[in-house]
Amino acid sequence: MDRNDAPAYPVGLRLAGRRVVVLGGGQVAQRRLPGLVAAGADVLLVSPSATPAVEAMADAGEVRWERRRYTPGDLAGAWYAVVATDDAAANAAASAEAEERRVWCVRSDDAEAATAWTPATGRDEGVTVAVLTGRDPRRSAAVRDAVVEGLRDGTLVAPRHRARTPGVALVGGGPGDPDLITVRGRRLLAEADVVVADRLGPRDLLDELPPHVEVIDAAKIPYGRAMAQEAINDALIQHARAGKAVVRLKGGDPFVFGRGMEEVQALAEAGIACTVVPGISSSISVPGAAGIPVTHRGVAHEFTVVSGHVAPEDPRSLVDWAALARLRGTLVLLMAVERIGAIARALVEHGRDPQTPVAVVQEGTTAAQRRVDATLATVGATVAAEGVRPPAVIVIGDVVALEAGRA
Ligand SMILES: C[S@@+](CC[C@H](N)C(=O)[O-])C[C@H]1O[C@@H](n2cnc3c(N)ncnc32)[C@H](O)[C@@H]1O
């Protein structure tokens, strides 16, 4: 084999405190310096000029900048060199000096003459991805992007064996569309041994889990309603104590009518570490998916998210419906399908205009999404006549009447 065709030998350089010489202060230096600084290298930049970004790094004391051209001897004491001036003769001379001194050297103008190549690199949570394809830097970048992206969104399953997130992760799964979970949530799901899932949320993601993952359907835990939360807490605690990586997957955001804090408190009492990963709440995303912004300039300066799980006249209700009726902005009701007639009546009785537009969005962001429009005066009857079923988000206010394409 021709010496030049031999594959590069990959290695991770530990440059902290070690001298690295960068020749040239242009675009190449601008791209390489942040990584060298992050690696803790003692960087000497030799260049008569520099880009503003490189200059800023020098001003910040991250690199030492000598404003001059390369002179032989500059590589004395270096462990690694980046040769990237706009002067081919200087590059060749510096490269020869590097060879002479046995300093690994990358060269921007002549990869074949270099003794080292810079891989396309990316990082994700303690993993460094470095890709070399020889003479195809675009392919290197594409492979790097695919791997880093896959690690970030959990589609590339690479469980941690040394340092897995201990305890329980309380993950907000978003409103239902599997693409609407956070990158962190998806990664934790990909690393889980046990997943305790709600009825709402991105249930499609459960199908993608490897067979060894135990999926517990929280809706099917066999206790009465009052006991169910305790049983869920117990399941989380038992599995975490058994050393499993547990994900509690919830719909929307864990802290928006999600009983998330009850689980956090139960875990804290049991001495189990808990990570909370926010999710996209249905209260904003479901209206949005149906084309309704919860605020709009000149229309609504506030939106209020309210639970409708108890009727206005119910003594257990903590909601001041009279105060809500006086607000001009948007009301977003969750868990209100069964009681929307009584809620609408209460709002009108307390002064909200009966002609206020209302939209009911069922199973938002999923393939079954549907939107039913009404007014405060008609919504109770419309919901019954149309057979609207939970889960649905009900939006009340002038934002409902806004249409795309109309200012
Ligand atoms: C117990 S609450 C949980 C809310 C959740 N934590 C959140 O932030 O979206 C359940 C209610 O959220 C609303 N909901 C959640 N997902 C929905 C969806 N995909 N479409 C319509 N409503 C949804 C419904 O009002 C449902 O009754």
Automatic annotation (TrEMBL):
Gene3D superfamilies: Cobalt-precorrin-4 Transmethylase, Domain 1, Methyltransferase, Cobalt-precorrin-4 Transmethylase, Domain 2, NAD(P)-binding Rossmann-like Domain. GO terms for molecular function: NAD binding; precorrin-2 dehydrogenase activity; sirohydrochlorin ferrochelatase activity; uroporphyrin-III C-methyltransferase activity. It is an enzyme of class 2 (transferase). The keyword Methyltransferase applies. Keywords: Methyltransferase, Porphyrin biosynthesis, S-adenosyl-L-methionine, Transferase. One of its GO terms (biological process) is cobalamin biosynthetic process. It comes from the Bacteria. Residues 168-379 form the Tetrapyrrole methylase domain. This is uroporphyrinogen-III C-methyltransferase. Its EC number is 2.1.1.107. The keyword S-adenosyl-L-methionine applies. The lineage of its organism: Bacteria, Bacillati, Actinomycetota, Actinomycetes, Kitasatosporales. It comes from Streptantibioticus cattleyicolor (strain ATCC 35852 / DSM 46488 / JCM 4925 / NBRC 14057 / NRRL 8057) (Streptomyces cattleya). Belongs to the precorrin methyltransferase family. Pfam families: NAD_binding_7, TP_methylase. The active site is at D198, K220.
